[in-house]
Amino acid sequence: MALERLQDTLGQLAGKVGGLTTQTRHPLDPLTEDEIAIAVSVVKERKSDVIFNAVTLLEPKKADLRTWVESGDAELPRMADVIASSKGNKIYDVLVDIKAKAVVRWEEPKDVYPGITMEDLMVVEEIVRKDPKVIEQCGILGIPPTDMHKVYCDPWTIGYDERFTDGSRLQQALMYYRPNVDDLQYTYPLDFCPIYNIETQEIIHIDVPEKRRPLNKAPPTNYDAESIQKEIGLRDDLKPIHITQPEGVSFKLDGRTIDWQKWNFHIGFNYREGIVLSNVTFNDRGNVRPVFWRISLAEMVVPYGNPDHPHHRKHAFDLGEYGAGYMTNPLAMGCDCKGAIHYLDASFVRKNGEPYTIKNAICIHEEDDGILFKHTDFRDESSTTTRARKLIISQIFTAGNYEYCIYWIMHQDGVIQLEVKLTGILSTYALAPGESAAPYGTEVYPGVNAHHHQHLFCLRLDPSIDGHANTVFEVDAVASDAPVGSRENRYGNAFMARKTPLQTMAAGISDYNPSRTWDIANTNKLNPHSGNPVSYKLVSREVPGLMPKEGSLVWNRAGFARHAVHVTRHADEQQFPAGRHVPQHSGEPSQGLPAWIAANGPASIANEDIVVWHTFGVTHFPSPEDYPIMPAEPMSVLLRPRNFFAQNPCLDVPPSYSSTPSGVREGRRAFRGGA
Ligand SMILES: *[C@@H]1O[C@H](CO)[C@@H](O)[C@H](O)[C@H]1NC(C)=O
Ligand SMILES: [Cu+2]
Question: In the record's cofactor note, how is the cofactor described as bound (predicted)?
Answer without folding.
Answer: Contains 1 topaquinone per subunit.
